[in-house]
Amino acid sequence: MIKRPTLSRRTVLRGAGGIAIALPWLEIMGGGKRASAADPSKRFVTVYTPGGTVIDNGAGENRWRPTGTETEFTLSPILAPLEAIRHKLLVVDGMSMTSAQGEQHQAGIIAWLTGTTQQPNYGYAQGPSIDQVIATLLATDTPQKSLQMAVRWGTGKSHGLLHPINAVNFEDNATFDPIPPRLDPQAIFTSLFGALDPDNNADLAARIARKKSILDFVDRKYDGLAQQLGARDKQKLDEHLTKIRELEGALDQMIIPTDVCVLPEHVDTSDYNPTTGLDSADDGSILNTETDQAIPKVGKFMMDMLVMALACDVTHVASLQWSDTEAKHTFPWLGLDQHHHYYQHDGNFRPAECEQIYTWYAEQHAYLLQQMDLVELGDHTLLDESVVFFGSELAQPPVHSKSDMPFLLAGGGGGLRGGRFLRNAGLADPSHNNLLVAILNLFGDERTTFGDPAYCTGPLSGLT
User: Fold this and answer.
1) Are residues 130 and 440 in contact, defined by beta-carbon separation less than 8 angstroms?
2) Fewest CB within 10 angstroms: 15, 223, 274, 422, which?
3) In this structure, how many other beta carbons lie within 10 angstroms of the beta carbon of residue 6?
4) 166: domain range?
5) Which residue, among 56, 54, 72, 84, has the nearest Cα to 410 in the 3D structure?
6) In this structure, are strands 12-14 and 20-22 parallel, antiparallel, or unpaired?
7) Does any domain span residue 261?
8) Region 359-374: what's the mean pLDDT?
9) Do 234 and 241 touch, CB atoms closer than 8 A?
């Protein structure tokens, strides 16, 4: 029996400089178009919101935790905005962030993605964050290893500067250096999607030539590959290469016409000062209401850029921070004229106002997930091959508790199964380090521990 030739789904055509151009799915690759559940996740997104949530409003009423069984459950009032995307959402309940040892807010934001205790004397993390470990795994042909963005960041005591009170991401290197997020939406747009000086012809020509170099020699590579293909596969590859030639021609106008990679709508953010934190006061008494009023617009713009950065393969790993652990900014669009920390602690715990804020954040989470789910990649979506991790530095404000952390996962990458309420209560409060290990496993990283081993007993079961 003659063995039928096969071709790996990871096969690429390489242009000048070794830059990879992905092929479409072909029959010679075997199987179906859909990636199997065992295939590692391809993209990772983290989203931070400050102050945990309102798990209990003080009157014995649950406001965050769903009710029901694993697969038959009702979302809580705070999580209700996620109903439309619930089938791709995993609510992870009952986890304790036991590795958050140090200053109550600082230790929490540091431990969230690192699983390590805070360095002595109010230092940073003692290990890398999982986003950077995953970025090392995934950043093979992407222009950027990872993307870190933040909205209304550096409030209060950090005065707009990197500090253990606002740092989420830590390098995967020997010193675990904190990574400052990018704050200016206009600068982010320019760096991600390009802005050429129309009067600088030399610069324009150089950039176009560099982009065209990606497509060099593809025809020659095709000739060798085409000899292995059947008629249907050859037709598919011809159609694929036609699109690539269209792309090459469009580079003269710096236009990239693809169904997946679409330039985000540019938003005027001239009313938003990304560095207003530099002028902040420790107690939040210095306000910038104009900048605060623009937070919803800027946040949506950043989420749109994040989604397209993933869709365009600019990067495979991205982080978004909605402020920092102090969050000493106001919410004028919600009719709240005091800063978030006031409603959490400084003005005593105000559950009604906090619930307004956390429900609004849930609306933003729903928008991000739905935008990712609108990016179609053949027979699945961008969200289907991604893992999105939502978290905070504590469970709820009144007692700075790190038990029953309000964690959410979404997507289908690595076989992650959504549409479920995963309860871990009664399991001796499993450490969230075990959750971090399980997330890494979704990306093909087979380690069994992560962060401080004193707080890790192995990967959490039930994600797949």
Assistant:
1) yes
2) 223
3) 12
4) 39-194+269-455
5) 84
6) antiparallel
7) no
8) 98
9) no
Confidence of residue 382 (pLDDT cuts 50, 70, 90): very high
Euclidean distance between CA atoms 382 and 130, whole angstroms: 20
Q: What is the mean pLDDT of residues 380-392?
A: 97
Tens-place pLDDT, residues 195-212: 434 344 555 555 555 555
CATH number, domain with residue 381: 3.40.720
Closest CA to 187 of 278, 276, 301, 300: 301
Question: CA-to-CA distance for 133 and 437, rounded, in angstroms?
Answer: 11
CA distance 40 to 430: 24
Q: Is residue 320 part of a domain?
A: yes
The predicted-structure confidence for 238-260, as pLDDT tens digits, reads as follows 766 665 555 555 444 443 536 78
- Rounded to a whole number, what is the largest CA-CA distance in the chain? 80
Total tally of structural domains belonging to the chain: 1
| Residue 291 in domain | yes
Question: What residue has token string 């929490």?
Answer: 108
Task: Indicate whether 82 belongs to any domain.
Answer: yes
Instruction: Give 202's contacts (C-beta < 8 A, 6+ positions apart).
Output: none
